[in-house]
Design goal:
- The chain is globular and about 65 Å long.
- The two termini are 43 Å apart.
- It is 41% helix and 11% strand.
- Helix 2 (66-69) links the parallel strand 1 and strand 2 (74-77).
- The chain is α/β, with parallel strands linked by helices.
Length: 359
């Protein structure tokens, strides 16, 4: 299996030291490689080297091979599902990773995000006065603003009494954009609005833009300029995030969605399985039939909660749960503590194994 990833925890460890103090007990030069994805990628995550912590630059490594993995004391997969897929029966490399796992030098730490950066009450301009105790009402204000100030010059508008469903991500094949047309059709059939916020000119996206050019409730953003200008507003306005990925190591979008008080409808692949929990923060689908039923169920649930007067409290619970589960520095379960504990474990002297010859 080809995996691209970066040992990007250097900055994280520095942040941990800044917040929790410099743990002098951690001085081992042990090195960790963080396996980030299950497919080839282009680019990398910048990180700060911490040599005395063993956090060193991985020389722009794109593919993890046995030869590369052997250079690291520990491999960390960014979700339990990615690790599970990586040690299942198959190639010789998977067998090697499985053997490392059994020896205790391969593990999984769920990738996290900085919750404050995606909390609408903290990341939006103060003029929106986003209230986390009234998330649905606050989202309505943003939708009205978008209609009046951003979309007014176009033939597009956001329907205010139905859920706004959004795709957020790259316009690329591995992100499952071939499922967008079906999701759009379902959404507009239910009277809702579907918005796509991404970058790129994939032929499939261009075809969809042409197909729905005259439909006022189907909106596409395709440039970095638009993303920079409207990204935060649209993320915070969306009620349902649609994540149809074909493969995902972890996927941060559902975490961002929950922190913005939104429900997630995602494909049941990779780390999405570890992030999206049915009947709690979203819905998972497995095929075309379950995609239809899951997205329809999410949109109907939103309408049901709104009609019963329980929408704000439910969204607030989703948001609070996300902050406690997905923030780097969340108590007990945050990835910062997990990495810190792992470094501490690696720094401890290992017991010597003595083999006695009884002959």
């Amino acid at each position: 299996m080809l995996c691209w990833g970066l040992c990007f925890v250097g900055k994280l460890i520095l942040e941990y030291r800044k917040i929790y103090g410099n743990d002098q007990q951690i001085c081992s030069p042990s090195t960790i490689f963080t396996v980030h994805s299950a497919h080839n990628g282009d680019g990398s995550y910048d990180f700060t080297e911490v040599p005395d912590m063993g956090v060193v630059k991985a020389d722009n490594i794109i593919s993890v091979t046995k030869e590369i993995a052997e250079n690291y004391d520990h491999l960390v997969y960014v979700s339990e599902q990615l690790l599970k897929e990586s040690i299942s029966n198959g190639s010789s490399f998977k067998s090697y990773i499985h053997a490392r796992y059994l020896l205790g030098n391969t593990s999984a730490i769920l990738n996290n995000i900085h919750a404050d950066e995606f909390d609408p009450a903290l990341c939006l301009p103060k003029k929106f006065a986003f209230d986390n105790n009234a998330i649905a009402d606050s989202k309505l204000i943003i939708k009205q603003y978008l209609n009046e100030n951003i979309l007014a010059a176009t033939n597009k508008q956001i329907c205010l009494d139905k859920p706004l469903t959004m795709y957020l991500g790259r316009y690329s094949d591995e992100k499952g954009i071939d499922k967008l047309d079906m999701a759009i059709e379902l959404t507009v059939a239910n009277g809702g609005t579907f918005m796509c916020m991404g970058i790129g000119s994939h032929p499939l996206i261009l075809n969809l833009i042409n197909k729905y050019a005259l439909h006022k409730n189907v909106i596409f953003f395709t440039t970095r300029t638009q993303q920079k200008a409207y990204g935060k507003l649209t993320r915070c306005a969306a009620d349902i995030y649609f994540v149809p990925s074909r493969m995902e190591a972890c996927c941060l979008v559902p975490m961002e969605a929950n922190l913005a008080g939104a429900i997630v409808v995602a494909s049941s692949v990779g780390g999405l399985i570890n992030v999206v929990k049915p009947d709690a923060n979203g819905f998972l689908f497995y095929d075309t039939h379950s995609l239809r039923s899951s997205l329809t169920a999410a949109q109907n649930k939103w309408l049901e909660l709104k009609a019963s007067g329980n929408l704000n409290i439910c969204l607030q619970l989703i948001q609070e749960s996300a902050r406690k589960s997905f923030d780097w520095h969340a108590d007990n379960v945050g990835a910062a503590k997990s990495y810190h504990d792992l470094y501490f474990f690696l720094s401890k002297p290992k017991p010597k194994i003595v083999v006695l010859n009884m002959s």
